[in-house]
Recover the amino acids of this structure.
């Protein structure tokens, strides 16, 4: 299947590179299939799931308001991350069902020991928030 240039452009903004191992958490039928396919094309392999028990370069965490505790989800997402690993928190855009307020994301990230570096449009219905460990913790 061919990935659209728009999806490839959005996935490129996630800064993935060929050969990286990307763990996907929170996948459901509402996730942006085009973005997922574009990430797979960029990294050159399938996304791994929660059963993967080795170190990963990045995590794609799809999260909606009713998915539970965001802090817990972020802590789970960072446990297999490499030292310079990144969590991309993908949440529904404002006005979409399951949207999470920016201050709730900031609070959960800080509690999990992460800091927000940027937010991008990750698709028609999704936004991506890049979260990293503070430099002192890396």
């Amino acid at each position: 299947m061919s990935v659209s240039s728009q999806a490839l452009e959005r996935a490129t903004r996630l800064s993935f590179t060929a050969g990286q191992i990307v763990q996907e958490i929170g996948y459901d039928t509402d996730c942006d299939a085009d973005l997922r396919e574009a990430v797979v094309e960029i990294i050159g392999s399938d996304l791994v799931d929660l059963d993967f028990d080795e170190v990963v370069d990045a995590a794609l965490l799809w999260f909606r308001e009713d998915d539970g505790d965001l802090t817990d989800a972020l802590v789970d997402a960072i446990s297999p991350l490499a030292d310079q690993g990144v969590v991309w928190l993908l949440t529904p855009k404002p006005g979409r069902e399951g949207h999470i307020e920016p201050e709730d994301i900031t609070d959960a990230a800080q509690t999990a020991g992460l800091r927000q570096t940027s937010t991008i449009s990750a698709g028609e219905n999704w936004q991506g928030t890049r979260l990293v460990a503070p430099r002192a913790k890396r």
Q: What stands out?
A: The chain has a mean pLDDT of 93.
